[in-house]
Amino acid sequence: MSDVSNRSALTGGVDGGDSRNTQPGQPQVIRRDLPYRPSPTKRPVPTPRPRTLDDRVLVPGPTLEASRARPGEQLAEVFEEAVDQHPGAVAVDTGDATLTYRELDGRTNRLARHLRGRGTGPGDVVGLLLDDPVESYTAMLAVLKTGATFVPMDAGFPADRVAFILSDSAAGLLLVTDSALAKVGDPVRGDVEILSVTGAAAADIAACSDERLGPDSRRTPGREHPAYLIYTSGSTGRPKGVVIGHPAICNFVRVAADEYGVRADDRMYQGLTLAFDFSVEEIWTSFLTGATLVPKPAGVSLVGEDLHDFLVERRVTAMCVVPTLLATVEADLDDLRFLLVSGEACPQDLIRRWWTPQRRFLNVYGPTEATVTATMAQVHPDRPVTIGRPLPTYAALVLDTTDPTRVLPFGETGELAVAGVGLADGYLNRDEKTAEVFVPAPIDLPNNPSGLIYRTGDLTRINADGEIEYRGRIDLQVKVRGYRIELSEIEAVLQDHPAVAMAVVDTFEPTPGTKELVGYYSLVRGAEPPTDLRARLQDRLPSYMVPAYLEHLELIPMTTSDKADRRNLPAPTGSRVAATGPVVGPATDVERGLVAELATALRVEPAEISVEADLFDELGATSLLLAGFAAAVRRRDDLPSVSARDIYRHPTVRRLAAALGDVVPAVAAEPVEPVRARPVAHALTGVAQLLFLLASGFAAAAVLVLGYRWISTAPDAVSLTGRAALWTAGVLVAVVLLPVLAKWTLVGRFRERTVPLWGAAHLRFWVVSTLIRTNPMALAVGTPLYTGWLRLLGARIGRGSALFGAVPVATDLVRVGARTIVHPEASLQGYRAVPGALEFGPVGVGDDCVVGEAAVLDIRTWMQDGSQLGHASALRSGVTVPAGQVWHGSPAGPSGSDYRGPDAVGAGRLRRVVYSAVLAGLSWAVATAVFALLVGLFARFAPQVAGLIGLTGADMGAHWWFFLVGAIAVVALVVAALLVGVLAVLTLPRLAALFVPVDRTFPLYGVRHVAQQIVTGVSNARFLVLLLGDSSFITGYLKGLGYDLDDLRQTGSNFGTQLRQESPRHARVGTGTMVSDGLRMMNTELSHDSFRIRPVRLGRDNFVGNDVHLPPDARIGDDVLLATKVMVPVDGPVRTGVGLLGSPPMEIPRTGAGPHPNHPATDEELARRLRSKNRYNASTLVVTVLLRALGVAVALVPLGISVALWPAWGLWALGPAVFLGPLLLMVWSALLERATLGFRGLQPRTASIYDRYFWFHERLWKLYVRPVLAGTPLLVWRNRLAGLSAGRRVFDDGAALPEKSLVSLGDDVVLNSGSVLQCHSLEDGRFESGRIRVGDGVSVGVRAFVHYSTDIGDGATLAADSFLMKGEQVAPGERWGGNPAEPEADDAPVPDHRAPAEPAVPVSVVPVLTQPFTEEVFLSRVQQYLELHDVAWATNASVAVLDTLARSLGADARDDLARHLPSGLRVQVPSLTGYGPGHGQHAVDD
């Protein structure tokens, strides 16, 4: 049989000399009496401390009293002493029979002797499964008399639970009654012996002597054994065993007998199962005082009236009861002299009902881990309910919930901790959990033998009277719509109603992601369901705490320990309580229509909705739910159209109806026929693109072959290096000039045109755009070399300007004035794709302008001199920003912000020239060294490779091992390179940052600028962030970079996989903040010739959505939700405790769906699941690195074959290899995405970030590859292979599709560059995913963002830089735009984003073009500008102005002016004769 005393987590006694060994395979129990710790990093060994009492410790007397148990005393001896004191008193009265203490002792001795004869003794574990009270008392006492440890179980336990307890405790014997065993079934494993005390062994037991066993027989010299193990519910779904030693339980029963006031003449109701340690209150206080136990009949559940009748009939005078059960008894009990409640919070109303002057009424509190009870209060209806003061020998402390090592002074609220001799020995087989809650006492405590305290997990406060106020369980706090709510507070208000007998509050999700409160209640006998219950809740609680549902139950489900069984509460059947104030009905037809649709969305009756109730705080609406509501409203012709922005700005039905106004008669929209490209043209274009790629491979191979043949014949190393230098210089110049030559040859000048997709013009444009975007000069963005290159391509860029934005493609259409700064990630493409066509149009930026980070300038836009466009803003087609004005937003409009960077410092032409020369020289030197090294290696090893596998390749199959070795070598090299890269990333930016002090302005293109470029470039290692993001490892990596992560609260997903920064040493993120993908810390402030590094800070408890750019002057504080693509404000008050949505940002409630129901409820569960997540993420990291490295090896296979075949085949061997290698890598990455999903598609899911499903989904993101071969059918085919459902002739110009199998694209869909279709969100630790359906002929604009659970109808358009929120439904043919996106009209006015208090500057000072640039539009705007009514006169005036202007221009500028004028106007300007289209240039189109 097993020996519990041998299950110490460490060997060694108090002095470290105990040589006892733990037997292999036996469970472990932490022993309080041993100075052990579960691991070297867990609990330190307690050391002696001065015996003084801290004033933050609450005890019932002047100091912490020593134990009242006698040295070495065991619980069996306490009982025998009680028997000797009152042998003839009645110990048990079952109604059918009575037993005196002497008789009970005799029964116990007979069973004890029988057990001893079977081998049961000290250290053994015996399970108890009995349903007869007398047999239960006998078995418990008999086991104690043998010196064994008993484990009580209830006959109502499931078989699985009984089996687990027997296995976990390593019990060797199970004492049962036949009836109890029959109820449970057969849960016992083969090595557990079963003894039925009511079966065949009963006669043998009765034949044993009733003499007591000697006290020495129950002891092992030098060793202690626990008195009992009792199992409580565990957060893992399995119960955990608490080990109670004899010193603790003997002390408690003596204290309780002394303090409670139970008398010898009392008749104590014994209704609790032995498996609930509250039964100790009933049984052992009666034993010690000589009182009589009155057990409830076996197999009967007594509640309410039945319990009342039993207590009266059996003349019960004392009762220990759970408040929930007491609340079911309505009539008073005149004979009841002593009443003790425990097990859960006692409501004030219960005290008023049951208190009388003659009755001793105690409210006691104690976790099992403190041996039954630790505190006691004598209650009174006129005093607030508390759990009183500690019992003698116990002490109480209140700990800071954020820093459990800090003890709070009296008056502050925190976590209750208990100390004293009554602490349990720990949890059986749960070393980590024991070390988590049994922790070293942070202050000196005399008479605390373990040196530990127990953290209860309960919120409490010690008041001015020295009593403990119970504030509820920490793990019973829930978060609903962003508010943290203590459920017990709501329960107390419900139970305070005179008609309510019992109440329980829990959460319920009517739809996934929508968490609501439900108040369950039962009634006192004869009461009717109260009609004022809701009003009472509203009067005493804030609106967010009022339950959405109130559910009347005949009986609240109960556990075996007579507590409310929350797990078995039913789903509410009643209607949702929609508002928390008086219901105000609709007054207009619009309000009635809105209420009807809102009721449908909320799944309530319209009569329950108040038009003055807040949609979020009171009605509990979520963004997804309101998206469906808005879509339903838009489908109705009798209601005005509504958008998400309207709802957030006017969050009540009444305010929303007033803002929307009257219904505007809808003009019937003509059916939209999607533009469809010709299938043959699509196929031929794809083939031509494939052939171009193949030809490019041969061209690259030819360059390499020629270079190798010339360089490798060099007689010595010096000559080889010289030839490599010459060859590299020529190749670099050729590569840089290749797109210039191709552009002027294939396209000439880009002009404002529309050309069909999938045709010759499209093909020529694609070739040029591919050469531009893949050119090495794209890496030099922001440098003078880059600007000069763009000028060669036809872009007109003024002197002194700096362009850090995305590479423009239609360069002739891009004009940037002098001294202008274009910030990183800004888009000035000069073209866009629409269904069936490519549209080209001018993008003009004047002198001294500022184009903000991630800003988008659509075609036909203009920024006049001195104007500014804020970050995360979009200028719509046909719109002009007037001179000197500041605009921001999407769509952009006037604002009162200022986006200028540091002052100019005069970085002149010489600095730019020197910088360019140095940059070009360094690039040349590096390229020379790499090429020379490759030539040397190839010359050395290529012949051997060819010899190994044959020059013709005929016998390659016989040399498969060579490719295997090569693959292993490549994988090893990739892993080694990764490790070297990590080292470089963690060191180089830190060293370079030393040269760039913060908050000082420096000129561009100097040493400090180079240092800063090293910091930015090296620290933003995309693959490392992708690899480590969404795991615990990312935080250590960021700290290594230099991030200040404050007091980090590890979640396992603190940061996503696409974090970017410009100076990690000056990036700070507060504790509790979670960041999704795409955050950019904008540390660098730029002007056209200077820069400055500024700190960027994120406060505490923020949540940052996707694609957010955070500037140094961000006006956000703590607890802010930054929605996806939000424009972070740089002026106004500091926002705290709110959400920000859109561009420009508007405040929304700081709410969300709240934690997932499967989110860890306790710190223990969180720690355990975080460890599991870390293990899974670690495996993902290893798998990702190996698979990516193997992909490189696969891509190099064609190159390895070509190396072998090159001596014989030459160029024909190398050319296909250059093409096939990247193609294989593309296919490999697609197959990895599919393989990760098991070659199945994803399904919409919601999960906690601590669910295994989310970890699996994270692994998919690790294998995501950025779009390649944009604008070709190859990209679409690759995405189909990865799981995308795509129709025919889809044009993808480089969209991001993280979850391809959740996306469905129709025929002829157009996805512009930088657009994102994201099928998931991750907010405050809750993951959700859904599908995206894009209909035929849909256009998704540049950098537009589409969220999940959306549907875009056929022929619809989503404008550039728009954000389509989750749940939105775009009807066929509609045009949507904005952030957040909403339906737009063709003549939509420019929004005004200025604050009302700002001085009004007329928006229409400069003509604002919202239509294509035609002669009619031009004339109408000129007419508006001149305030004339005569179009002819306006035309004459315009011709005169244009003629004067043209005469002052040079030939090139005059030609450019002519090309941008409508033909009807151009021919009227004399000085433009002979200029414009048709003179030396051919168009983009055919």
TrEMBL record:
Signal peptide segment: none
One Pfam family cited in the UniProt record for this chain: PP-binding
Organism: Pseudonocardia alni subsp. carboxydivorans
InterPro entries: AA_adenyl_dom, ACP-like_sf, AMP-bd_C, AMP-bd_C_sf, AMP-binding_CS, AMP-dep_synth/lig_dom, ANL_N_sf, Hexapep
Family matches, as CDD domains: A_NRPS
Keywords: Membrane, Transmembrane, Transmembrane helix
Name of the protein this chain belongs to: Pls/PosA family non-ribosomal peptide synthetase
Keyword Phosphoprotein: no
The Carrier domain, residue ranges: 585-664
Compositional bias segments (type: Pro residues): 37-49
